[in-house]
Amino acid sequence: MSVYQLGEMVSLVFMAIALGMDAFSVSLGMGMQEIRLKRIAIVGAVIGLFHIMMPFSGILLGQAISTQIGQYATLTGGLLLVGIGAHMVFSAFNHEAKRLVQPVGLGLLFFALSVSLDSFSVGLSLGLSEVKTVFALLLFGGASMLLTWIGMILGRKMHGLLGIYSEILGGSILCGFGLNILFG
């Protein structure tokens, strides 16, 4: 293995961790809902899958689509996170309201899409380089899945400590992360 290949692998590992940290941060907030371990496993697997599919799509379309779409993907992801977080905060004050966003079905797909949109932009840039695609995609998916699990389990533990205020804190984390994407 050459020094160049080792450097490329280290770069991909750091990139995978950076992409997975988005999922970790958001999962920390989402995990503060009372979510069962089986659901946490499914959510992590779906987010990992999205972190494979989105950059793969970006790689495939890397040369066909302009770099402008990366800005729109980030904007959409940020808006989705702010919306999900705001709903969590407002539903914490209205105990009779049913939660709109649950990490099941369509809610899970929106959640996974919102945390993996930035990986599409990364895929666009990787499509223009000569990176080991399969290795990069598996690394992205594995890191985001693992970090999602860690975030949701930590969030679940914090829910037990914070009780009724955990949903407000979780929603605030999602809103803050979405605003950071939009304006940071």
From TrEMBL:
Transmembrane segments: 6-28, 40-66, 72-93, 105-128, 134-155, 162-183
Location of the protein in the cell: Cell membrane
Keyword hit for Nucleus: no
Claim: Transmembrane helix is one of the keywords in the record: yes
Any one GO molecular function term: manganese ion transmembrane transporter activity
Keywords noted in UniProt: Cell membrane, Ion transport, Manganese, Membrane, Transmembrane, Transmembrane helix, Transport
Matches recorded under InterPro entries: Mntp/YtaF, Put_MntP
Primary localization: membrane
Family according to the record: Belongs to the MntP (TC 9.B.29) family.
Function: Probably functions as a manganese efflux pump.
Protein name per the record: Putative manganese efflux pump MntP
Top-level taxonomy: Bacteria, Bacillati, Bacillota, Bacilli, Bacillales
